[in-house]
Design goal:
Distance between the termini of chain A: 67 Å
CATH superfamily of chain B: MetI-like
Radius of gyration of chain B: 24 Å
Strand content of chain B: under 5%
Number of strands of chain A: 11
Number of domains of chain B: 1
Structural class of chain A: alpha/beta
Structural class of chain B: mainly alpha
CATH class of the largest domain in chain A: Alpha Beta
Number of domains of chain A: 2
Number of helices of chain B: 23
CATH superfamily of the largest domain in chain A: Periplasmic binding protein-like II
Strand order of the largest sheet of chain B: 1-2
Largest interface: A-B, 78 and 79 residues
Radius of gyration of chain A: 24 Å
CATH class of chain B: Mainly Alpha
Helix content of chain A: 40-55%
Shape of chain A: globular
Order of helices and strands of chain A: HEEHEHEHEEEHHEHEHEEHHHH
Helix content of chain B: over 70%
Oligomer: heterodimer
Shape of chain B: globular
Largest sheet of chain A: 10 strands, mixed
Chain lengths: ~350, ~575
């Protein structure tokens, strides 16, 4: 009996291992042969084959760029992972800490994440010629990333509840008494653009601004669209979110309007970078070139964002970048480094000041 | 009998064990490893330190309050509904049960959005209605702990209602009838005979709800941060830490996840202890038939019908009506009236966004496969655990249940950390076996099955607890092998419970968001990721369109199932 049981168990184990093996892909010959067409290894051949792009761009912009890439770079097969900046960062960091990511190109909107990736040595320096037309401070001095788009944090208000005159004109005005309990911001713990906003505002006005806002019943939740939706619905009268969200909602007829804050709109550059660990550098470079080209810029503008090149016309309904660029707080390597170091402290203080 | 069929049960069990070891144990081990500070400097007790901060302790307390509150609410609604649907001859009971299980078809956080539209203090429709009839201040405020419990409880009661209804359907009528013959009133027979008999089902589904509420993220975030009252729970604290992104925060996040896992395991343990006391009372013995429905007096009947209608109105008609209305809004914020209605959102979501239709198809097949796998594997594990109690099956049961207690984000991170690189096994220098979870939808399927296997194990276990072993023994005595006896005798008797389980896995998988956003492969969007995109980048109407489609598809699916069941032969138990 025991002998039979043993044989049965052995058979069962073997069968289940074989069953498990059916879940695997089977390759013959040297591992990896023919997996990535055109460029094996570090990839210095002509652009071709699969290229993995991790991005937080909106779906319509991704579709636009996908079409452009396939048209201009025949033979290149872009594979997109599309999610919010924080999700992309979580996935990429997870993969990198597990030993490697298949991402070739990163296109999100959190400059601090790029700064961290750069210090970890995960980025391959490359600046496409087209990116040299962008303001110099938006390009990494070591060329680890270049800007692919510029999002703008503006003030937003509900036109049914506030007139143009009543609308807040600067970030400190959000703490006006008549707006108490009526102001909403995004959550810097959940959204990269709001983290950047809080970091800039804290440098300029210290935590006092947020203490006052909190005393006036500030609510901070979700990301840009959550702010916009709740200002549009009238649950809140005013707040701050990205210009691109306001432009899209206005076009659909929502009762919202934006104000370029008098103390300077906060520019959030959406950097692009090539990952050192990616297997298709040549193609990643070709796509970077395409992104920084006039055609790439046009796709960005169709997505209601400003192209980094000030000469490119602004999105429909938005002022040209040059109009407010000079007042906007400046990005710099030192700023990135400082905020990067203080990132945990900023988030913890935010928690103490606002979320308690 | 052939050797093959004799080895079959062991083979199936071994395959499940291997799958669990790879896809449940390894990711969980990675998470625990990070929490303990591996690799590099081992700090076995560091994870306890994360609880030292008062904020985290408060988050733990809120988590427990929400989990318990939700469980009480879900059991309080689910059990009476199941009794009303199965035991009282309500008119149109099948249609009612279809309608009442709807909340499970839509991700809780969409119900949360609907409830914010209904009951936020400033523009909530119910508050506006109250103001119209003279209320001077908002009567409802969804923001806060109570609101979270309210939305989660209303979303999760079908998880109690469905298994308890299935348990009631397979009850042996003779027990209750003997009580009645012995002179007990219907109420007494109910309290002393029926309720104790369905107790294992109530206990196991209550544990499911408890764990689900403790590991919920969307609703606690939406409602806990949306108003001036802030509620932080463990899951929102964990995701905040993951978002911070530096290694120390990530380790803290994993440590909090470990706390949540321990809390949940304790809850699960208490639940199974509670169910154990009832285990000796077998309900299905092979004798007897389905219990006769209780006939009610006309007044009592009217009261029950009213109560069911009220629940259906509050839990389904109000929020689903809100979602339907929102889905038709042309300009968000420009009023909810018909002047602002149009079909453009439907056209935009279904036609212009060419991801949507393939995503629906992909979610549907992933849901079917995941639900079938989780139900089948769960039934096998529960059966093995019951017939061969021992350390090995206990461990397997634990492994099957543990991932459910972990927040989706953490489980997804575990899978990412463990399998984001291909696992290669080279055989004979030429042949390479490559396990590449992230090439297509495999990672999603694995995550869904691992996460929801617990449904399969728990509902099957509680259903098996009701079966008398004499039935199977009779089959064995008549010469059937173990596999044959299980397939021919046990499985048909389990069928209602398995059907309920299948549905319980299929519905949440269909629209799963948390894990899908992290694990989705290139070009493999699912409903959850499309919903997430619409919710984050488009406006509420766009997301409401998908929610409405989910509700409609569930109703149509249930109508179809109903029609099939009517035509097919009825299983006599």
């Amino acid at each position: 009996m025991t002998a039979r049981m043993g044989r049965r168990t052995r058979f069962a184990l073997l069968a289940s291992v074989l069953l498990a093996a059916t879940a695997c892909r089977v390759e013959f010959g040297p591992p990896g042969a023919g997996k990535r067409g055109g460029s094996a290894g570090s990839g210095d051949g002509p652009p071709a084959g699969e290229v993995w792009i991790y991005t937080s761009l909106y779906r319509n912009v991704v579709d636009d760029l996908d079409r452009l890439i396939r048209e201009r770079l025949p033979g290149v097969v872009p594979q997109w992972f599309v999610a919010g900046s924080e999700k992309v960062a979580a996935r990429l960091d997870g993969e990198l800490s597990a030993g490697g990511s298949r991402a070739d190109l990163l296109l999100t909107s959190d400059p601090f994440h790029y700064a961290r990736l750069k210090t970890e040595g995960a980025l391959l320096p490359y600046v496409p010629p087209g990116a040299l037309r962008a303001p110099r401070e938006l390009v990494d001095p070591d060329g680890a990333w270049f800007p692919a788009r510029i999002s703008t944090m503006v003030l937003v208000y509900n036109t049914k509840l506030l007139s143009r005159e009543q609308a807040p004109r600067s970030f400190p005005e959000l703490a006006r008494d008549d707006l108490a309990g009526r102001v909403i911001l995004g959550d810097p713990l959940a959204s990269g653009t709001f983290f950047a906003t809080v970091a800039f505002l804290e440098r300029r006005y210290s935590w006092e601004l947020f203490r006052t806002l909190r005393a006036h019943g500030l609510v901070a939740t979700g990301g840009n669209s959550s702010v916009l939706d709740r200002v549009a619905s009238g649950e809140f009268s005013a707040g701050a979110c990205l210009l691109e969200n306001v432009l899209g909602a206005k076009r659909k007829g929502s009762p919202v309007e934006f104000v370029i804050p008098g103390d300077g709109a906060i520019l959030v550059p959406g950097p692009a970078a090539i990952l050192r660990g990616g297997g298709n550098h040549a193609t990643a470079r070709a796509i970077a070139d395409l992104l920084a080209s006039p055609d790439g810029a046009a796709a960005i503008v169709r997505g209601d964002m400003h192209a980094p090149d000030p000469a490119v016309p602004p999105p429909d309904g938005a002022p040209p970048l040059a109009d407010f660029y000079s007042q906007a707080p400046r990005w710099s390597g030192e700023l990135l480094a400082e905020v990067g170091v203080r990132s945990t402290e900023i988030r913890t203080t935010w928690n103490d000041v606002v979320q308690r | 009998m052939s050797r093959l069929s004799r080895a079959l049960p062991a083979t199936v069990l071994a395959a499940i064990a291997l799958g669990l070891a790879l896809f449940a144990a390894v990711p969980l081990a990675v998470v625990v490893g990070r929490a303990l500070g591996l690799p590099g400097h081992l700090a076995p007790f560091r994870w306890i330190g994360v609880l030292r901060e008062p904020d985290r302790l408060r988050a733990l307390a809120s988590t427990l309050e929400i989990a318990l509150g939700t469980t009480v609410l879900a059991v309080g609604i689910g059990v009476p509904l199941a009794l009303a649907l199965v035991r009282l001859a309500l008119p149109g009971a099948r249609a009612w049960s279809g309608l009442l299980s709807l909340p499970a078809a839509v991700p809780p956080y969409l119900w949360g959005i609907a409830w914010i539209d209904l009951a936020n203090p400033r523009t909530g429709l119910l508050n506006q209605a109250a103001a119209a009839i003279g209320a001077t201040r908002p009567v409802l405020d969804i923001y806060g702990l109570g609101g979270i419990v309210w939305v989660l409880g209303l979303s999760f009661y079908p998880l109690v209602m469905l298994p308890v209804a299935a348990a009631l359907e397979r009850m042996d009528a003779s027990l209750e009838e003997s009580a009645r013959l012995a002179g007990a009133s219907p109420a007494r027979a109910m309290a002393q005979i029926t309720l104790p008999l369905i107790a294992p089902s109530i206990a196991s589904s209550a544990v499911l709800v408890l764990l689900l509420a403790a590991s919920a993220y969307g609703v606690p975030y939406l409602i806990g941060t949306g108003g001036t009252t802030h509620v932080t729970v463990l899951t929102t604290a964990i995701v905040n830490l993951i978002n911070v992104g530096d290694p120390a925060s990530l380790a803290d996040a994993m440590a909090l996840a470990l706390c949540l896992l321990l809390v949940s395991l304790a809850a699960g343990g208490i639940g199974s202890l509670a169910a154990r006391g009832e285990r000796r009372r077998a309900v299905v013995t092979g004798k007897g038939q389905r219990p006769r429905p209780v006939r009610l007096g006309s007044l009592a009947r009217a009261v029950v019908v009213c109560a069911v209608v009220v629940v259906a109105t509050v839990a389904i008609v109000l929020p689903a009506g809100t979602l339907l209305t929102v889905s038709m809004i042309r300009s968000w914020g420009a009023g909810l009236g018909p002047a602002n209605w149009s079909g453009i959102n439907y056209a935009r979501v279904l036609m212009t966004n060419h991801e949507t239709l393939p995503a629906i198809a992909r979610s549907a097949w992933l849901g079917v496969v995941a639900a079938s796998l989780a139900t089948a594997c769960g039934a096998v594990l529960a059966y093995a655990r019951r017939r061969r109690p021992g350390v090995a099956t206990k461990l397997l049961e634990w492994l099957a249940n543990a991932p459910y207690a972990v927040p989706g984000t953490v489980l997804a991170m575990g899978l990412l950390l463990a399998f984001s690189r291909e696992v290669r096994l080279v055989v004979l220098d030429r042949l390479t076996l490559v396990l590449d979870l992230f090439a297509g939808s495999a990672a999603l399927l694995v995550a869904y099955v691992v996460k929801y296997l617990s449904f399969g194990v728990r509902t099957s276990a509680s259903a098996l607890a009701q079966l008398d072993s004499s039935l199977e023994e009779a089959a064995r005595v008549s010469g059937a092998g173990q596999a044959r006896a299980a397939l021919d005798v046990v499985m048909p008797l389990l069928a209602p419970a398995l059907g309920a389980t299948w549905l319980l896995v299929f519905l949440p998988v269909l629209s799963e968001i948390t894990m899908s956003v992290l694990l989705v492969g290139p070009g493999t969007s699912v409903i959850g990721t499309v919903l997430f995109e619409l919710q984050s980048y488009a406006d509420p109407p766009a997301a409401a369109v998908l929610a409405t489609i989910l509700v409609a598809a569930t109703l149509v699916g249930q109508a179809l199932l109903h029609a099939i069941r009517k035509r097919g032969p009825r299983l006599a138990t």
